Amino acid sequence: MSYNLSNLSTYTDELSFELISKAVLQTSVMDYATIRSGLKSGTTSINLLDGNITVADRSCGWNEAGTLVYTQVDIDMQEKQTKQALCPTSLRDYYLSSRLSASANATEVPFEEVTANLFVEKIRKWNEDYLGGEILADITVAKGAVDSGQTVASTASTIIDDVMDLIDAVDPAVLDRDDLGVIMSPAYFNMLRRALTAQNLYHFNAPGINNNTELMMPGTDFKVIKSSGFVGEDSFVAGPLGDLVVGVGLEDDFDNLKIFYSEDNDEVRVMAAWRIGLGVVDTTKWAKNGTL
């Protein structure tokens, strides 16, 4: 059996948008964040409206009070790409040669669908790491997040109290929202899960929730999620996850993933391009576990 490049081109042409959408949108953080698509490169401002009212006893006259506040959150949109050149002829001396045709004119690549999906997974992982790094850079005590008071890294014996202190530090004004969460590294996520189990708190997750990706902190409305972008960090953040605004493109032909044969270079080429950025609506509504 051989894999004809014409089939490959058809596959990637027809599924280019679907493939790059999976790579860009299906990350852990994006499952909970607010997504804004159609954004271009450079700084994009997201318009926000807030305000306050003043309630007084009923009286005659017009005693005006209260304000509406228009603000903006800037998202620094990044244009990213990955490119590779694959030479099918270089596979002749290996087991993959069985997937190539006998023709010396090697315009084929084996396992085209697997190759495309591998790129999707790698781009998805890169995006998750990128978003985690942006969250850590934007939600800091120095930028207005509430300090939970933690001074040393969490251990198995302290992590439950550390997370509860973090949750208690979140601005009370957002505690009635249904998108509250804590973000941490996979290692600390596993540590927290084991600590909860050790205290016989086996009921911390409702039926149907995947314990490998999220858990509910007992006694709270906060979901705990993990992000590979926090790997190697002792930092946790807590707040309204919907206030993480992730900007993407996906509404023009810039964002794509293609695999094609280049006759000029006599090689198969893989190219993906996408846009991504992150903004936080109001850092002061978040809490951070000290300056860790």
Describe the overall structure:
The protein has 292 residues and is an alpha+beta fold. It folds into two domains: 5-51 and 74-137 and 247-276; 140-244 and 283-288, capsid protein of prophage fold. It has helices at 5-25, 112-138, 159-168, 186-198, and strands spanning 34-36, 42-52, 67-86, 146-147, 180-184, 214-216, 223-226, 237-240, 244-248, 256-262, 267-280, 287-288. The strands form two sheets. Strands 1, 2, 3, 9, 10 and 11 form a six-stranded mixed sheet that branches. A six-stranded mixed sheet has the order 4-12-8-5-7-6, covered by helices on one side. A hairpin with a 6-residue loop joins β6 (214-216) and β7. The termini are far apart.
Helices and strands, in order, run as HEEEHEHEHEEEEEEE
Integer average pLDDT: 83
Q: First CA to last CA: what distance?
A: 56 Å
Count of helices? Answer: 4
Can you give the helix content as a percent range?
10-25%
Strand content: 25-35%
> In the residues, how many domains can be counted?
2
Task: Specify the structural class.
Answer: alpha+beta
What is the 3D shape? globular
- Strand tally is 12
Low confidence ranges: 1-12, 91-98
Quaternary arrangement of the chains shown? single chain
How large, in whole angstroms, is the Cα Rg? 24 Å
The main sheet comes to: 6 strands, mixed
